Amino acid sequence: MHAVCDRRQQCERGWKRGWWLIVATIGLMFVAGCAARSQSPPPLADASCTVANLDQLGTSAIPITVAGHDSMTGVAKALAAAAARTDPDAQPFAFKVRFDHAFTARGDDPADFVMTGLFERPCDASNYLALGWGYSRRDSERAYAAIVPLAPPQDCPARRTTVPSIEAIYSLPVPEPEADHPPVHGWQVDFPQLTAALRKNRASFANGVEAIEVTTARRLRLDDARPSGCVRTVYSRSGHRRLDALDGSRPVMELAEAGQPSRKASLAGYCTTGHYLILDAVTAEVLERGRYQRCEYFAAEQI
User: Which of 119, 230, 255, 286 gives 277 a disulfide partner, CB atoms 3.0 to 4.6 angstroms apart?
Assistant: First the structure.
């Protein structure tokens, strides 16, 4: 019982720093661990699908040049340039931003943030290239790279009382058609437009923005429909997919409010709730708004 309570307190502290970062970090650590154990490159879908400086993936960092550390689009451009040097055919299909502290319209300066760029490689239908910036405060001119499965394992280990082997937790990468991750083009919305949007939606974002994702409408809809390990997210717009009437290639920016504890929390899991706002990533036009409830399950209980 004490272990469950301790775990609940840990979740409450860590959840506010970005639920999706947990998934990304685990993925990066897993890739690095596998590379260290096997002392060989991660499996690629095609023998001709090579990556420059493959030995650096998951073990070191790639130098990049960021013109302005207070610009999300500036960091995204630097990551895209680094990805092109690593793999000339790489195309970005999502950028994930997490703030060190919840970003609000009251701040005089943009909040410190970290960003992970997700880059599709046409030669590999099972994995993508991930480049993370801002994770090392002492050296912000480097990006940490890894090859990560496009479709992560969907099962939740918390459902099991025993895990027979590491292979039972991490399934093999599943190929995914390029149409499921169209490239992001034309992203222009940055802190000035973000601040203006928050001022118009003060009531919904009283706790500030915890995380931002820039992707396409199609990718957002697909991610909504997929379980993510032990995390389950439910949106207020039930009955249909979010942005279901929007062109799938349209670039969008999803803002997630810093979540607050939900009454649905139990001994088997921890839940938070908050608001979300989806903007056009080019014009900052409001496309959709609503509420979310996100639960992480960590006890051996049916979900």
Answer: 255
Q: What is the pLDDT of residues 269-297, one digit of tens each?
A: 788 999 999 999 999 999 999 999 888 87
For residues 46 and 48, what is the distance between their CA atoms, to the nearest angstrom? 5
Asked whether residue 303 is assigned to any structural domain, the reply reads: no
The first and second tokens of residue 29, run together, are 């650590």
Determine if the pTM surpasses 0.85. Answer: no
Alpha carbon distance 256, 175 (integer Å)? 29
- pLDDT category at 69 given cuts 50, 70, 90 is confident
What letter represents residue 39's amino acid?
Q
Enumerate the β-bridge partners of residue 127. Answer: 149
Q: Choose among 113, 104, 109, 271: nearest CA to 204.
A: 104
Looking at the structure of the chain, the number of domains it has is 1
Domain residues for 199?
A: 2-297
* pLDDT at residue 198, rounded to an integer: 94
If you count DSSP H runs as helices and E runs as strands, how many of each does the chain have, helices first?
A: 5, 11
For residue 201, being part of any structural domain is answered with yes
pLDDT average, residue stretch 3-24: 40
Does 302 map to a domain? no
At 177 the three-state DSSP class reads coil
Whether 116 shows a pLDDT value over 80: the answer reads yes
Q: What is the DSSP letter of 15?
A: H
